[in-house]
C-alpha cells in the first residue's frame, strides 16, 4: 500500500505593511488566480486528496479555500497552527496524526519549510517551490506514522505558471 502526500505552497501574497502581522498577509491577485488554476488542475487530473490541512496563516487558508472551490473538491479540510512557521519535524508530526483510512493528504504551507520537507522526504536533492506550486510524494506505507524521511518518491512537481 502507498500513501501520497501533496505539499501545496500558498499563493503569492501581499507584502503591504498595512496587514500587520505576517500571518495576516492576504493572497495577492496573482496568487488568487494561481490557486484557482491549481484547484481545477487537480480535479481534472483526478488527484484531489482525501484530506487537506492548511496552515492557519491567512494566505495559506485562502489558497486552500480558493483551490477547493475552483476544483469543486469534496475532501474535508482542517486548519492548524502547527504548519505556520513549522520545522520539518513539526510537519512530520502533523502527517503522523492523520487517520490511516486517508490514502492521500494535502498540506498547505510555506517556504522554506516545503522545499526542505521535499528534500528530507526524498533523502536528498533540492527542489524549488514557487508560490502556488504543488509537489506529490509517494510512500510505501499502510499508515501515516510509517511515513519517514528518506522514504518518499517524487511523483510530480507542478508550478502554476505551466498552466496559466
The CATH superfamily appears as: Phosphoglycerate mutase-like
Q: N-to-C SSE series? A: EHEHEHEHEE
How many strands, which pairing sense, and closed or not: the largest β-sheet? 6 strands, mixed
From the structure provided, what is the oligomeric state, counting identical versus distinct chains?
A: single chain
Class from secondary-structure proportions: alpha/beta
Q: Mind telling me the C-alpha Rg?
A: 15 Å
Unreliable residue runs:
none
Task: Give me the CATH fold name.
Answer: Rossmann fold
Broad shape: globular
Under CATH at level 1, the class stands as Alpha Beta
**Level-2 CATH architecture:** 3-Layer(aba) Sandwich
**Number of E-state strands:** 6
Mean pLDDT comes to: 95
Strand order of the largest sheet: 3-2-4-1-5-6
What is the straight-line distance between the termini? 34 Å
Number of domains: 1
Number of helices: 4
Bin the strand percentage: 15-25%
Percent helix among the residues?
Answer: 25-40%
Binding site for substrate: 59
Protein name: Histidine phosphatase family protein
Describe the protein's architecture and organization.
The structure is a single chain. The protein is built from four helices and six strands, in the order E-H-E-H-E-H-E-H-E-E. The protein is α/β, with parallel strands linked by helices and 164 residues long. The protein has a single domain, classed as 3-Layer(aba) Sandwich (Rossmann fold), CATH 3.40.50. The chain has a six-stranded mixed beta sheet with strand order 3-2-4-1-5-6, sandwiched between helices. Helix 1 crosses helix 2. The chain starts with a strand and ends in a 6-residue tail after the last strand. The mean pLDDT is 95.
Amino acid at each position: 500500500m502507498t500513501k501520497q502526500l501533496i505539499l501545496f505552497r500558498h499563493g503569492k501574497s501581499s507584502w503591504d505593511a498595512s496587514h500587520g502581522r505576517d500571518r495576516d498577509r492576504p493572497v495577492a491577485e496573482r496568487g488568487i488566480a494561481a490557486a484557482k488554476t491549481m484547484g481545477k488542475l487537480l480535479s481534472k487530473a483526478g488527484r484531489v486528496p482525501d484530506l487537506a490541512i492548511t496552515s492557519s496563516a491567512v494566505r495559506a487558508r485562502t489558497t486552500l479555500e480558493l483551490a477547493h472551490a475552483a476544483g469543486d473538491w469534496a475532501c474535508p479540510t482542517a486548519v492548524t497552527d502547527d504548519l505556520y512557521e513549522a520545522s520539518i519535524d513539526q510537519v512530520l508530526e502533523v502527517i503522523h496524526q492523520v487517520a490511516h483510512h486517508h490514502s492521500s493528504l494535502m498540506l498547505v504551507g510555506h517556504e522554506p519549510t516545503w522545499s526542505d520537507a521535499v528534500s528530507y522526504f526524498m533523502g536528498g536533492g533540492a527542489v524549488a517551490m514557487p508560490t502556488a506550486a504543488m509537489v506529490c510524494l509517494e510512500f510505501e506505507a499502510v499508515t501515516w506514522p510509517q511515513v519517514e524521511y528518506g522514504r518518499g518518491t517524487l511523483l510530480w512537481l507542478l508550478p502554476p505558471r505551466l498552466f496559466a
